[in-house]
Amino acid sequence: MSGTSTRRLLVIGLDCAEPSLVFDRWRDQLPTLSHLMANGTYGRLESCHPPITVPAWSCMLSGRDPGQLGVYGFRNRADYSYDNMFIATANAIKVSRVWDVLGRAGKRSIVVGVPQTYPVRPLNGFLISSFLTPSTRSQYTYPASLKHEIANLLGSPDAYEFDVRQFRTENKHWLLEQIYTMTEKRLKVIRWLIQTKPWDFFMWVEMGTDRIHHGFWKYMDPQHRKYIPGNEFESAILDYYRYLDNAIGELLELVPDDTVILVVSDHGAKRMDGGICINEWLRQNGWLVLKEEPEGVVPLEKCEVDWSRTRAWSSGGYYARIFLNMKGREPQGVIPPEQYEAVRNELAEALAAIPDEEGRPLPHRILKPEEIYAEVKGVPPDLIVYFGDLHWRSVGSLGLNSVHTFENDTGPDDANHAQHGLFIYYDPAQPVGGRQVEGLHIMDIAPTILTALGVEIPPGMRGRAFVPGTQMREDAKT
Questions:
Q1: What is the pLDDT of residue 431?
Q2: Is 271 helix (H, G, I), strand (E, B) or coil?
Q3: How far is 431 from 439, CA to CA, in rounded Å?
Q4: What 3-state DSSP class applies to 108?
Q5: Domain range annotation of the chain
Q6: Given a cut of 50, is residue 29 above it in pLDDT?
Q7: CATH class of 9-270+418-452
């Protein structure tokens, strides 16, 4: 790093970056991250429930849990009807995030690719929205003029890429090319922004780490049931981590010497052993009733549900969200309110007993929203289920005629999310000699950012600012 200026903070967000890979397995092959660890403080970072991109990044940057945000995943129930779902864009976030707080304190921010920033909102600085942006034809920057500058920089109005849209594919050569192309375009824009725009706080989130995990995990993990030794993609994830490590090193050369560096991920990754077809299980066990047999494998929303005889249904994904059909709450509810808790406990107990395909027990985790969140806003699920400690995906489609599957209903996917992401905190003014600590939570990041930049933590923001070299933990329910 070179040059001098007022104190700044650079946050490098690597969606889904897995701590065991960075801290242990590949540390000696990642010289930039290793240097930051050796001279800073690092450790696992407990994610929110559920540990998923939306809402995890907003929890991190607002200091609120998903219940307080009223966001329980990418798609959420807008009300208690059966088919009114909404995508949790920036419009779902009603509280300030760190750049809003910094802006009120006169600090300038540059925000690139942080989830739930589309549609864009004004800030004191510059913003490029994230992977939920429909296309480059959308107004994806603030100010609007930044969009034209990016087009000039990249040579085309459509050149910038928010995501690899079809990352669940068997065409792995194409997928690799798309991930690198997307990341390199973003890095070109980031290098330009760092050098040409004023900032006190700069944050970039890269989705490539998430996409490469889901696309290539089975090729590098000997414990994955589909792993084949010596396959051609065995080093694909490592090579991308090396690529990012080198790119981060180049960015550090562009920022002033006194810049605080924070590398962070919203959750980790782990192998996917299989899928639990949750709505098939609910149907087989009398909780969910259809009016007719599905033709082929179809999502629940395309099935004719007999709501007058259905007590529960589920939304699939890396975790399951279970909804009870409550009388007086849902339009055709059948469970009397006074029986709610007894029925919910009955269902939770039955879910906990679902075995693997050979009848062996699995370590499921079943959560009640009011027990894990400080508040419960919006329309929460009645239960959140992590099958097999998140080694098993929740498959929501019907028509598979089995509770267990080893193919994903939304396309090829090798990895699930893990509860812990990572953080690496390096303050050149306070080197601490590479201390690894445990106990940090994703909501500790927002107050840490504000404290590093000398801005007061506002009321309502949970978590505590991280003090390098110490061990701490926020005591709020998470």
A1: 84
A2: strand
A3: 20
A4: coil
A5: 9-270+418-452, 274-412
A6: yes
A7: alpha beta
